[in-house]
Specification:
The protein is an alpha+beta fold and 463 residues long. It is 31% helix and 27% strand. It has seven helices and 22 strands. The chain has helices spanning 2-19, 24-41, 46-68, 72-87, 262-265, 321-324, 402-462; strands spanning 90-94, 104-106, 116-119, 132-135, 140-151, 158-166, 172-174, 177-180, 196-203, 207-216, 219-222, 235-242, 247-252, 255-261, 273-275, 290-292, 307-309, 331-333, 345-347, 359-361, 377-386, 391-399. The strands form five sheets. Strands 1, 3, 4, 6, 12, 13, 14 and 22 form an eight-stranded antiparallel sheet that branches.
């Protein structure tokens, strides 16, 4: 295999040298293919390298055929399609931009929906490349949907990531996405019949979490644990990874935030065992660990009266029983009161322990190792409510290629760094302007005081 690989590589080099004399365009095409296909894959295992090199040879032969037959337009199409096929393994990718309305439709399932606009926000790394869709109207529901080329995640890991920026310092609103089954009528798609929902949700100090909701057998299952989301005004990359071993992982900005088992953290399946309905706790079962000491009795001189009649109180001389009724002496706190008597507590000699209900197999339990799997993903949507608008969504990626996701994380880190730099520079400039303004005001005030003082001097001389 190693010799075969060497021979293939030598053959490729010879072909490349030959092609350099054919035409400039043809050489450019081959170089692109070589960089995209061969170079990255030569770092992989031997079998993968051989396959990729073989693919490259086949493409080169096809190109030679089309060169000789003068089918230049067909050749260009072949090259372009091949490069696209090997350059990205994304199941879905959306970077929005000014033309996002060509791919997204507004839902007709709700009236008076807010409008999404194209924007990179106040701070960005690249004004054009960082454009996403931004909520633009306060106190509105939003609902837009886009088609996905139908796919299934059965038997493979799926990675879902997208960028969110709450630049408006959000007080209450969603920042999540929904994935749906395929639909021929996106405008009338039921926005509550989704496969999964994922992303941040903020509403006051009480709700600041990452939603992870899966649909299973017609019921939506919310995650049982709380995963905190980011609440600042910067961009953040939210990622959900679902694996065939029925585990999941939530990442924020490319770093693991939480994760676990789908069986442990969601109630997809009924419990394996249930309490035996034919068994109940015996009536004579004693589960009190302690009892009052029967030998500890209240002393005869124990005073438990909180108040007594005031012995010093006397009926007023002008008291008229016919007019005022029968006179009653007022009460006062009993100075000898000792509190309520409580007997000492001792271990219960008849204690039998905590009664445990016997378990039996649950007849309704059904094992399912495919709770992670969906046969049909065919649409994606932004369906949310916001009190204060200004949230930007961008860089949606759905893939089963970890290398592609890694590249997306690196791109996000570049964006975040540029965004932070621009924001820091703007804040530094603003601070400098404010300090300069204060200095000017202080100088003007000092000059005014000097002028006032000079005007007062002649007045003294006149006196």
């Amino acid at each position: 295999c190693f010799l075969l690989l060497l021979l293939l590589l030598l053959l490729l080099l010879l072909l490349l040298l030959l092609l350099l004399f054919v035409c400039f365009f043809f050489c450019c095409c081959c170089c692109c293919l070589f960089v995209v296909v061969v170079v990255p894959c030569c770092c992989c295992d031997l079998f993968t390298s051989c396959c990729c090199c073989t693919l490259f040879v086949v493409v080169v032969v096809v190109l030679i055929y089309f060169i000789n037959s003068d089918n230049w337009f067909i050749m260009k199409a072949v090259v372009f399609a091949t490069v696209l096929a090997v350059a990205s393994a994304a199941l879905y990718k959306e970077d929005f931009g000014d033309d996002f309305a060509d791919r997204w439709v507004t839902s007709k399932k709700k009236d008076g929906l807010g409008k999404f606009v194209s924007s990179a926000g106040d701070y960005y790394n690249d004004a054009e490349a960082d454009k996403g869709v931004k909520t633009s109207e306060d106190a509105k529901f939003y609902g837009i949907v886009s088609k996905i080329e139908k796919f299934s995640n059965d038997g493979k890991k799926i990675i879902i990531s997208f960028r969110v920026k709450h630049e408006q310092n959000i007080d209450c609103g969603g920042g999540y996405i929904k994935l749906f089954p395929s639909s021929d009528d996106l405008e009338n798609l039921d926005l509550e019949s989704y496969n999964l929902m994922f992303g941040p949700d903020i509403c006051g100090p009480g709700t600041r979490k990452v939603h992870v909701i899966f649909s299973y057998k017609g019921k939506q299952h919310l995650i049982k644990k709380t995963i905190s989301c980011k609440t600042d005004e910067d961009s953040h990359l939210y990622t959900l990874i679902v694996s065939p071993d029925n585990t999941y992982e939530v990442q924020i900005d490319g770093k693991k935030e939480d994760g676990g088992s789908l069986f442990d953290d969601f109630d997809f399946l009924k419990p394996k065992e249930i309490d035996d309905p034919e068994v109940s706790k015996p009536t004579d079962w004693v589960d009190e660990t302690q009892i009052d000491d029967p030998e500890d009795v209240k002393p005869d001189d124990w005073v438990d009266e909180k108040q007594i009649v005031d012995p010093e109180a006397e009926q007023p001389e002008d008291w008229d029983e016919e007019m005022d009724g029968e006179w009653e002496a007022p009460t006062i706190d009993n100075p000898e009161y000792k509190g309520e008597f409580s007997a000492k507590r001792i271990d219960n000699p008849e204690y039998k322990g905590v009664w445990v209900h016997p378990q039996i197999p649950n007849p309704e339990y059904e094992a399912d190792d495919t709770v992670y799997s969906y046969k049909d993903f065919g649409a994606i949507g932004l369906d949310l409510w916001q009190v204060k608008s200004g949230t930007i969504f961008d860089s949606i990626l759905i893939t089963d290629d970890e290398a592609e996701y890694k590249t997306a994380v690196e791109s996000f880190e570049t964006l975040a760094a540029g965004e932070k730099k621009m924001k820091d520079e703007a804040e530094a400039k603003k601070k400098a302007e404010e300090e300069a303004k204060k200095a000017d005001e202080a100088e003007a005030e000092e000059e005014e005081d000097d002028e006032t003082g000079e005007a007062a001097e002649p007045a003294k001389d006149e006196l």
